[in-house]
Amino acid sequence: MISYMDRNLIISATFLTVGLLVSGCAVDNGKSVENNTPLKVSKQKFTAEPGLVPKQRFRKAIEKLENGEEGQALAELKAYLVAIPRSKSAKKLIAQISTDSEQYFPADYFTVNLTSGTSLSTLAKTYLGSALKFYALAKYNDITNPSRVNIGQEIKVPLTASAQAQLDKENALETAKLNPAPIDVPVVAEVTTELAEQTDESELPEVVIEAPVETAESVLGMLQDTMNNKDYATAVEKVIALEAFGNFDKDTTVLAIAAYVNRAQEIAETDNILAASYFAAAGHLNLHIESQLEAFESFRLAYDLDESNEAVMEEMLVLQKEISDQYHREASSAYRRQELDFAIEKWDKVLEVNPDHSSAQLYRAQALELKEKLKNINQD
C-alpha cells in the first residue's frame, strides 16, 4: 500500500525528472533532436525589445540563438550594433545566421559524442576557436534548438584548421601517454689531472666581462622575487617583459595572473581603467590554462570597473553562458542519477555565475524539496 506522502513524493520526482528530460533533451513533436529538420525561413518581422542596455541586449541575443529563435536574435544583434558598431562578436553571430553552414564551414568533418557537461558551446570553443560558433555548429548538424541536445548524441564537427590543430594536439598527448619518452641522462665530461697539468696559463683566452643579458629564466626569477616582496607594480613590468619570450608554462601563467590581480586590486580606486585592463589580462591568462570560472570572475571585475569596455563585457557574457550550460547539464544528469546533493551543488554554481538562470532556480528548488521529503520518509 502506497501512503499519501509516498505518492506525493513519486509524483514530485516524476514531474522534476520529466522537466529535466525536456530541458536536457531535444523534443520536437515527439522526435528527438537527431531527427530535427532545419528551420524554415520565416516571413515574420522581428523588432528589438525596447529599453535594453547593450549588456542586456547582447545577452538576450545569445539566449534567443540558443533557443533557435534566430529572427529575434538577429533583430537584437542589429540593435546592439547600433549602440556598439565596432563589436566583432555581434558581426560574427550575424554572419552565422545569414550564411549557409555549407559556406561557413568545410564539408569534411569528424564526429564527437556529447558527454555530461558538454554542449555545442564547449565543442565550438575546443575545436572551432570560439564558443560563439555554437549556432553555426548547430546549423551544420541540422539542430534547430542548440540548447536541446542529448548526452551521447553524435555531433559532426567541421574539419577547420583550428579543429585539425586540436585533433593533432589530442593525438600527440595520447601517443605520449602510450609511449613515454626516455629520460636523457647528461654526460659530464671529466677533466683529467694530466690534461690540467699540460695547460699553459699563457694559452688561456683573455676574459672579457660583459653586461648580463636578460633571459626568460632571469626575468622569471626577478618576477618571483618581486611577488615575494609584494612589489606588484614591478611584478607586472616583469610579466610584460616575459611575454616577449613567448608563451608561459602553467606555473608562470599562475604567477602572472597573481601579479595582474594583486596590482589591479591595489589601484582599483585610484586608476579604475588601468585596473580593469589588468583584470582583463588576468582573465585571458586564465582562459589560456582553461580556468573558465576564474576567467569569468576576472572579466566581471574588469567590467565593473570599466563598463565602457564592450569587448570585456562580451567575453564575460560568453563565458557566463558557457559555464552556466556546463553546470546546468551536469546538475541535470546528476539529478537523473538521484545524486541530489551533487545536483544542488552544481545548480548553486550556475546561480553564482548567472543569478537570473530561471531553469536552475526552478530545478534547484524542486530538488531541495524532494530531498527534504526523502529525509522525512527515512526518518519515519
What is the helix/strand order?
HEEHHHHEHHEHHHHHHHHHH
Q: Count the strands?
A: 4
Gap from first CA to last CA: 16 Å
Major sheet description = 2 strands, antiparallel
Radius of gyration: 27 Å
Quote the beta fraction: under 5%
In spatial order, strands of the major sheet run: 1-2
Q: What fraction, in percent, of the residue positions are helical?
A: 55-70%
Dominant shape? globular
Structural class: mainly alpha
Mean pLDDT reading: 81
Task: Please give the count of helices.
Answer: 17
Low-confidence region ranges: 1-12, 21-41, 187-197
* Domains (count): 3
Describe this structure in words.
The protein has helices at 4-24, 54-66, 70-83, 88-98, 101-104, 120-128, 134-140, 161-178, 193-198, 216-228, 232-243, 250-267, 272-288, 292-305, 310-336, 340-353, 358-379, and strands at 27-28, 31-32, 109-113, 154-158. By secondary structure, it is mainly α. The protein folds into three domains: 42-98, no CATH class; 104-174, Roll (Membrane-bound Lytic Murein Transglycosylase D, Chain A); 216-379, no CATH class. The strands form two sheets. A two-stranded antiparallel sheet has the order 1-2. A two-stranded antiparallel ribbon has the order 3-4. Strand 1 (27-28) and strand 2 form a beta hairpin. Helix 15 runs antiparallel to helix 16. The model is unreliable at 1-12, 21-41 and 187-197 (pLDDT under 50).
